[in-house]
What we know:
Blueprint: E1 3-8, H1 12-22, E2 27-33, H2 39-46, E3 50-52, H3 57-62, E4 69-70, H4 71-77, E5 80-83, H5 90-100, E6 103-106, H6 112-115, E7 118-119, H7 121-124, E8 133-136, H8 139-154, E9 157-167, E10 183-184, H9 192-200, E11 206-213, E12 219-227, H10 233-242, E13 246-249, H11 251-254, H12 259-268, E14 279-282, E15 287-289, E16 292-299, H13 306-317, H14 322-333, H15 339-349
Parallel strand pairs: 1-2, 1-5, 2-3, 3-4, 5-6, 6-8, 7-8, 9-11, 13-14
Antiparallel strand pairs: 9-12, 10-11, 12-16, 14-16, 15-16
Bound molecules: nicotinamide-adenine-dinucleotide (NAD).
Residues 8-14, 33-36, 84-87, 89, 107-110, 138-139, 170, 301-302, 305 line the site of nicotinamide-adenine-dinucleotide.
Amino acid sequence: MAVKVAVNGFGTIGKRVAEAVLKQDDMELVGVTKTRPDYLAMLASKLGLLYVPQDRLEKFKKAGIEVQGTLEELLEKADVVVDATPGGVGKEYKPLYEKAGVKAIFQGGEKHDVAGFSFSTLCNYEEAEGKQFARVVSCNTTGLLRLICTLRKHFKVRSVRATIVRRGADPHETKRGPIDAIVPNPVTLPSHHGVDVKTVLPDLDIQTTAVVVPTTLMHTHILNVRLGEAVAREDVLRALEEAPRILVIPSELSGVKDTAKIIELARDVGRKRHDLYELAVYEESVAVEGDELFLMQAVHQESIVTPENLDAVRALFGLASREESLRKTDESLGLVRTFSEILELGARAFGK
Ligand code: NAD
């Protein structure tokens, strides 16, 4: 039996999650919601999937966009709603989800307390089963947790220090900045990212600082991890290369040495909207001095949480084990684990 999934908020995250749900054989997309009549609303309407809050019906009628019904009616059809409304708006909908008796998955723009449980596939998949609410942590936190939980599988992680270089806006956001500044985010310690990681790994010694820069493509993390003992660089690289959802990029060999080139790679291998679901680690940045590990990684903020949202659906319902969900999600979305696999995608995208 397929789990019926609704998506509230059909924007950057919502449209990706909705499309990904359509690719799952154990999920059914029952509808999406929009609040404003724009081209995405027209697209959802064309697909016969558009629902709107009761108080917006008139607006959509005036715009001549056909809707299937109201958000309340959509929730009646759903087993779970993925709330992808703008940060802070999701909590306003929680009473409605409770009233409808549906499970709900919130996004990283909401506070941990909204769900009381923050989710990361590689860190705490099993803890989600039976819960009504989960919150898929933000893009930066998802990237940090994928790395940290992969390291913890192989080594003792004593502490993590990270500087987050955040993109100023998503590509379509013309009203956000900065345009010509590097903005401490915040200027005082800590940034919220380490605090957010601790919602999943409360025992971790982590401290983060952040700046926002004028770019739209990706975030970058500069990490310093203290391990339990001295380790070999090759052992760290092997652990990262074997891990799901992490792509180690041989930058010198491939010329993929920055975020613009990572996105160009995603375009060239045929990833829709240049999505890179994988956390990208620059191979040459991985350095070990005694028990200290240094590395740099890049996060495609618009798409990295898509796989985790699918896993969260399965985890809440106990539909599949973590390994099974990883396999289903990653195969259906075409995630890769190695650089040669992404080149194979590229060859297929060229028609070979
Ligand atoms: P977005 O602005 O691109 O999309 C939000 C959607 O919700 C839009 O379709 C908008 O029309 C709709 N909406 C607006 N107000 C609404 C309301 N009151 N009720 C219902 N729908 C409403 O936002 P986004 O970037 O997709 O972010 C969604 C969530 O995902 C936020 O919590 C955000 O923090 C989180 N997130 C965003 C990113 C990112 O880089 N964009 C990455 C990870 C997590």
